[in-house]
Amino acid sequence: MGEVKVIKIGESVFAANDDIADRTRERLRKNGTFFINVMSAPGSGKTTLLIKLINILKEKYRIGVLDVDIESSLDAVKVADATGVLSIQINNGGLCHIDADMAARALEQADIDGLDILILENIGNLVCPAEFDVGSHKKIMLTSVPEGDDKPLKYPLMFQVSDAVIINKTDTLGYFDYDFDAAKDRILALNPGARIFCVSAKTGEGVEEIAKWIEEQTEAL
Amino acid sequence: MGEVKVIKIGESVFAANDDIADRTRERLRKNGTFFINVMSAPGSGKTTLLIKLINILKEKYRIGVLDVDIESSLDAVKVADATGVLSIQINNGGLCHIDADMAARALEQADIDGLDILILENIGNLVCPAEFDVGSHKKIMLTSVPEGDDKPLKYPLMFQVSDAVIINKTDTLGYFDYDFDAAKDRILALNPGARIFCVSAKTGEGVEEIAKWIEEQTEAL
User: Fold this and answer.
1) With bands split at pLDDT 50, 70 and 90, how would you rate the model's confidence at B1?
2) Coil, strand, or helix at residue A65?
3) Between chains, do A126 and B126 touch, taking CB under 8 Å as contact?
4) What φ, ψ does residue B79 adopt, rounded to 5°?
5) Which of A168-172, B2-6, B150-154 has the lowest mean pLDDT?
6) Strand stretches in A92-198, DSSP E
7) Distance CA B158, CA B145 (A)
8) Does B125 contact A169 at a Cβ distance shorter than 8 Å?
9) How confident is the model at residue B153 (pLDDT cuts 50, 70, 90)?
């Protein structure tokens, strides 16, 4: 009887991705650059939050931003205009995510030497980016009040892989039914170690607390 | 010199998908079932809108709903409870989209004979579902006021492939800066034939117009 060779394509793709991610993570750690991967659904307020965070953190740290989009440089331009920090747009050619190899190639082309904090603003998608480790030290995800408190039940992997979950747009609570306790219970059931923040990127409420957490992570690198 | 065989994997995948989609479309047309693919970002209000639409349309038509999610049967249960129509949950095993083959296999298992309208509530994702024709006669997408008016610039393919674009959550305009004229111009620049509706699925404002459009499409099948 001949030998049957089983090729597990899914596994090998992710294993190769994870090897590259590990190399990126280690290289950035040695360089003293804390690398954060920020993910969310479209329109959750990533760019608005990042601008607020960077304007707090840039007093103390050198910061760079990598903005991933299918097309357009809207967010990179917004961040650069509002913060003055290094802002690089990556157009990923229509893909639904960025993987470790794409991130590593982008980092090779970017002048990131000497940065204390590097932030990847991932493409707006709660599914695919959750599957790809890009080599970050920490993963942050945003979910927002208008999206509803059932999102952890519907996109569990994203909530599982994130070190911090930010519930954004708390200023719109008067307009939407959103049960914070239910949302928190659902997040912690999936990911008991998740740090949860409730903020309004628009008004700035709660943003200082996230900045403090990023500062702690940067110092602990 | 040997012959070089070029395999275009991307093309063949989509060509195979489109063949299956065409067969589904034709089979449903012969059966008199109008098939709509409804897409959006997470939390745009698909389920709330569909419940309102179905409760209008079910007076005249036999309707069925296919709900696609990574996990959970939340939306299928919500639709069934609120409308009483046939509601089927498809759990797609963690994928970011549903393709024509998955849709065809789901339809084989579902009892859809005699339906006038079949609605697929796709997974919440503005990227991947835009690429896969599932065999529907028309594609509808929702975008919502809290997501911002720049979404056509950032997720152009979804806006290009949709026959109708619904701007939802117009009742939240007091809370968000949203430029309807800019949004409409951006949508029509990508897709000049798109039918655009502005609605609040929550209050019901504008929903009758969409129901009328679906009725016209159903009659014209």
Assistant:
1) very low
2) strand
3) no
4) -65, -45
5) B2-6
6) 117-121, 138-144, 164-168, 195-198
7) 17
8) no
9) very high
List A residues 59-78 in contact with B (Cβ-Cβ < 8 A).
69-72, 74
Q: Which amino acid is at B141?
A: M
Helix axes B46-57, B74-83, angle to 10 degrees: 30
> What mean pLDDT do residues B110-129 have?
94
Q: How many residues does chain A have?
A: 221
Q: Number of helices (H) and strands (E) in chain B: give both, helices first.
A: 8, 7
Q: Which residues contact B18 (CB under 8 A, 6 or more apart)?
A: B100, B133
Whole-prediction pTM? 0.92
**Rounded CA separation B192/B165 (Å):** 11
**A42 to B157: CB separation less than 8 angstroms, yes or no:** no
Distance of CA B83 to CAs A202, B106, B142, Å?
37, 21, 20
Q: What is the pLDDT of residue A1?
A: 46
List the end-to-end C-alpha distance of chain A, in Å, as a whole number: 54
Determine the pLDDT at residue B13.
73
Q: Minimal Cα distance from B154: which residue of A?
A: A71
CA distances from A96 to A59, A134, A148, B199 (A): 34, 14, 22, 28
Length of chain B (residues): 221
Is A2 exposed, middle or buried (CB count within 10 Å of its CB: 0-12, 13-18, 19+)?
exposed
Asked if B133 has any chain A CB less than 8 Å from its own CB, the reply is no
Interface membership of B123 toward A (CB under 8 Å): yes
Q: Do B96 and A96 touch (CB under 8 A)?
A: yes
Q: Give the whole-angstrom CA distance, residue A90 versus residue A70.
A: 8
pLDDT of A150 above 60: yes
Return the residue in A70, A159, A169, A178 with the most chain B beta carbons within 10 A, the one to mutate for interface testing.
A70
Q: Does B32 touch chain A (CB under 8 A)?
A: no
* Least confident interval from A130-134, B43-47, B67-71: B67-71
